[in-house]
Design goal:
This protein is α+β, with helices and mostly antiparallel strands. The chain has 4 helices and 5 strands. The longest helix has 18 residues.
Length: 135
């Protein structure tokens, strides 16, 4: 799983640099409003957490920048290959706190059955802009 994650991180990084985001998510369902995920059985949830661990671990050893979006897309592909449903979220933050000049930042995270698989750290400061799911 770790080797597959490392390879997919590279493929997703390359895809982000060479392909439009619209094409990257063409086979996913877009939700403009919040969505409720269907519960997973315990075996699928264990596999999802293992995939999250593999992606996060492999990301630390890539010679390229494996950002949150790269990790989400790699994990999503691995989950979908195994028939595990989930959703990933794109969030934005203007960073206009404490009288500073506004700056826009973004974050991506992935959840299965309301449990974080990747991108949990810092997600709470971002407002969800789009949600993408698969079955």
């Amino acid at each position: 799983m770790l080797i597959q994650a490392w390879r997919l991180l590279g493929a997703m990084r390359f895809a982000i640099l060479t392909t439009s985001f619209k094409r990257l998510v063409a086979n996913l369902t877009v939700h403009r409003e919040g969505m409720r995920q269907a519960p997973l059985n315990s075996g699928s949830l264990v596999t999802a957490h293992r995939i999250g661990w593999a992606v996060r671990t492999a990301a630390r050893f890539t010679p390229w920048n494996s950002t949150c979006l790269v990790q989400v897309l790699a994990a999503q592909r691995m989950l979908q290959q195994r028939g595990i449903a989930g959703a990933f979220y794109l969030g934005a933050d203007t960073g206009a706190d404490e009288g500073k000049r506004p700056s826009l930042s973004a974050h991506a995270w992935l959840k299965c059955d309301d449990e974080f698989i990747t991108g949990e750290s810092g997600h709470e400061r971002f407002t969800v802009v789009s949600t993408f799911s698969w079955t």
